[in-house]
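hey so u asked for the seq, here:
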Amino acid sequence: MGEALSKARPRPVELTRDTIQEFMQRYDTVVSDLDGVVWTPVRMIPGSKEGLESLRAAGKRTLFATNNSVLSSYKKFERLGYKVERDEVVFPAIVIADHLQQIGFKKKAFVLGVEHFKSFLREKGITVVPERQCPEYLEENLASYLKAIQIDPEVGAIIVDLDININMLELSQAVNHLRNNKDCLFFVGASDTYVTFQDNKALLGPYHFIRLIEQCSDRKPIVVGKPGSMMIENYLKKIHNLDLKRSVFVGDTLMQDMGVAAACGMGKLLVLTGVSQLSDLDDCDPSLIPDYYIKSLAEFSNLLAPAGKS
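ran it, structure tokens below
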């Protein structure tokens, strides 16, 4: 196989013709990640649509949970040609907006995130600041920097997600609101460190900015995105009445995807089309070791086809 696993550690079961029936009998619902499993930021992963259709045809409910609030997942599903209902796909912006609406949040939310993320908060009637995507250019001296840090008493929540245009001033604003208002809520959407794509290019995630805000404000956030459990427990489980013990999470990362599965008591299926590979299991936290692994979603088309037709 070329990717040896330590004998002292549990071994995930590869999904094959010999093991697929046990897997199918064990789970009623498949909850899947999107990036690295169904598609990448630049292309669809070959065979992913057919794999999902095979699971549906076999009677499995298919739902989706992604940390990516940058672009519309619904539009990408349209391009894929795979029909989903809006409540079958969840990402952090939806859950945070719903939560703030449910608790009667009336203050402003200071958001480090992209416009697509902010739009879901605005749709729920939440006032989002800063209103502009990029601030004005500051003179490069500490007096200008200090003067620009404004603390708004109407800000009642700091929300951090992937923000491609993040800057020092807005990071400092977030820290100072949390330091000066102990009642200010603190939410985190995505918390990825980085993701590597083609040409070995690495896209930095918000993890280190989140840690910076935590350390400087001495505050711990509510983690809404994976590996936090809110997208599953507070949204998909509630809406679709999921039995999590009979649900499996399909993902390409150990920390986020296998992590949320472990947190929610779900089965764990690692797909090898994205970030994590079998060699990563040698030194990961044992709770993140998947129950099963598969090369790609496309494999389900072959594994679930009648004998002789794969």
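The first strand starts at residue 13 and ends at 14. The radius of gyration is 21 Å.
lmk if thats what u needed
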